[in-house]
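FIELD: query
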Amino acid sequence: MAGTRALDHERVAEARGRCTHWLNGHGPLRPAELLATIPPDVDPDRYGDGGVVGTLEAEVAALLGKEAALFLPTGTMAQQIVLRVHAGRRGRRTVAWHPSCHLDWHEGRGYQRLHGLVGVPAGRAGVPLRLEDLGAIAEPPAALLLELPQRELGGTLPSWDELGAMAGWARERGAAVHLDGARLWEAAPFYGRPEAEVAGLFDTVYVSFYKGLGAIAGCCVAGPADVVAEVSEWRTRHGGRVFGLWPYAASALTSLHLRRDRMGRYWEHARAIARALEGTDAVRVVPDPPQSRMMHLQLRVTPEDLRDRALAVAEEDGIWTFAEPFAVDAPGLVRLELSVGDATLGFEPEEVRRLVERLARG
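FIELD: result
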């Protein structure tokens, strides 16, 4: 069995290495290409102060309409810290969020083990959060966390009015409103509003530079200057004030300038792909139509058949589609995550339809 697994791994690696086209996102962001996003004349920081880090922070604060922004190496660090700051200022420990919240699912519950925070899920896991769901929370929260768009739900977004109502619910209870905006750049086209107007509904905002934008790593937290200053102190306590953050910040600034203005184009292509998939019983698009550049494709296929068919497409056509399902919803039912990016733009919607049908039907 071990020998078979090793053989499969070698076959997959060889097929992947020979592929010339990539369906998902921006394609493979290889080390040399990522390093090329760092300009040769970049001005370095020192322990996060000055240089390109300061330039990036100032630009992000302006884009989001906030007094200040702080660069941190990871979103896990950033969001745990900012929620800790909100909790400390209000003398509360409860944070309300949707059951699919990234902090609860993917971060080892660091918010609880490191900061003593208590997460209170509102609503149902497979359904977007609504104002009526928040009404079930009786305990006054320190903060309400909203994710735009919701990745686990295929990039769904609440309406503008619903978003404002949920933010108002939190403020009426003395809670902060925090935006998990890892993909905020992707959400702005749906609302037809600049990022600053969306961010204006929130006290603090977290944005990522590698998700969607394709930079090496890193993120920013933006908000009032005094809150950001306190986040900076916690960044030091978390070990995030490393000697040089400039490679990440420089890559982030380049990628922000390169791809931020393309988000509307990515979204329109996603919607065109969804229209091309209409009428086929091989796939269900979630949400339909897509509300951001992301969508989930639900296929009636086993994970094993999906892998075999994806590998066949790679070997026969040189196209890398999906190595693994995003999730297995039930026996014989898998979900794929398609995020439209630079690589996806190279495929006409009908081409995507044919590829997805091959994965679903063989």
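FIELD: remark
The longest strand covers residues 333-339.
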